[in-house]
Automatic annotation (TrEMBL):
Pfam family, one: GDP_Man_Dehyd
Signal peptide positions (record): none
Domain of life of the organism encoding this protein: Bacteria
Xref: SUPFAM superfamilies: NAD(P)-binding Rossmann-fold domains
PANTHER family (alphabetical): DTDP-D-GLUCOSE 4,6-DEHYDRATASE-RELATED
UniProt domain NAD(P)-binding: residue ranges: 4-306
UniProt organism field: Psychrobacillus glaciei
Name by which UniProt lists this protein: GDP-mannose 4,6 dehydratase
């Protein structure tokens, strides 16, 4: 079996590649940069440069790799950045997905069994009333950021491609995922970076934060990628799946747990520049659909994920 992961060099891509390799799957990935083959713990990841800017180029790539599964991870995933670059976010998340889906329609004549997983986001749901929690796949989409709107468009497109072209595609809406190696700009690495600097005496004891009152549903990235594989194998075609823990944690609780795990005695300061124009207050998902259609069970406790993330932050240069 062979898999292609778009955007493989991102945070989730490397974890997914490791997981697929551990299942005996040959793994290829696309990246914007020219990159040599990457040796991972469970085997070699073959990387090809492809910006996903042209249906023909992607089609040629599919004809040469002949994947059984495609995991479409490439995109612009930073909510805050999506406010600063709305057009770039839509191009990266919507236009490139259209190029990929069109290439898949063409390629599926050769390989009608190929299955595709597009990665969306819980941000597609946007503004949810407390009476709508936990959020189900059928909850109305009212995205509140350009990022959320772009991913909602993808979820609608895949249903059209499935109906119009019989494309074997499944769309996943992951809620917040965290773990070692996540880049700055997301809440846990933003906190751990400062905590590590304070621990090392490289920074005064002030930890700058944004909105602490929001509630999020966090899952370890290592559980998330297992869910993606389960979905590509057993998910119902043309369907949308949440992937989440089903539990809500406030950002304040995350902050306090990280401060406890560190030896920093940090003083917390809320910083205006870290507050967003709109921030969704409560996000808790419902995961019964993925659990009933696949064998997915998340394994990591949040404290373990935070500890691993802090330790990884300590080892960063
Ligand atoms: N990034 C960041 N940095 N967020 C902070 C900070 C900070 O210093 N302080 C407080 N927050 C708050 C944010 O305002 C938000 O309410 C919450 O922490 C989580 O922020 P992020 O980690 O940036 O995640 P997100 O909820 O905006 O979006 C993430 O999750 C989505 C799924 O729901 C992203 O990973 C998206 O790509 C993903 O789709």
């Amino acid at each position: 079996m062979r898999a292609l992961i778009t955007g493989v060099m991102g945070f989730v891509g490397k974890y997914l590649a490791e997981h697929l390799l551990s299942q005996g799957i040959e793994v290829w990935g696309t990246s914007r940069m020219e990159s040599p083959l990457l040796r991972l713990k469970n085997g070699n990841l073959k990387i090809v440069q492809n910006n996903l800017d042209s249906t023909d180029d992607i089609h040629n790539l599919l004809c040469s790799i002949k994947p059984n599964y495609i995991f479409h991870l490439a995109g612009q995933s930073n909510v805050k950045l999506s406010w600063e670059d709305k057009e770039g976010t839509f191009y990266a998340n919507v236009n490139k997905t259209i190029f990929l889906l069109d290439a898949c329609v063409k390629y599926q004549q050769e390989n009608p069994r190929m299955r595709i997983l597009t990665v969306g986001s819980s941000e597609e749901y946007g503004k949810v009333e407390s009476s709508e929690l936990p959020i189900k796949e059928t909850t109305i989409l009212r995205p509140m950021s350009p990022y959320g709107a772009s991913k909602a468009a993808v979820s609608m497109l895949i249903q059209q491609y499935h109906k119009a072209h019989g494309l074997n595609v499944i769309h996943v809406r992951p809620f917040n995922h965290i773990g070692p190696g996540q880049s700055l700009g997301f809440v846990v690495p933003d906190f751990t970076k400062q905590l590590v600097q304070i621990e090392k005496g490289e920074k005064e004891k002030v930890l700058k934060v944004g909105n602490l009152s929001a509630m999020r549903d966090f899952t370890d990235v290592r559980d998330i990628v297992e869910g993606y594989y389960e979905l590509v194998l057993y998910g119902k075609l043309g369907e949308i799946y949440n992937i989440c823990s089903g539990d809500g944690v406030s950002i304040n609780e995350i902050l306090n747990k990280l401060i406890e795990l560190s030896s920093s005695n940090a003083i917390v300061e809320v910083c205006e520049s870290k507050i967003r124009p709109i921030d969704i207050p409560n996000y808790i998902g419902e995961n019964s659909k993925i659990k009933s259609d696949t064998d997915w069970i998340p394994k990591y406790e949040i404290i373990r994920t935070l500890e691993d993330s802090l330790n990884e932050g300590r080892s960063r240069k």
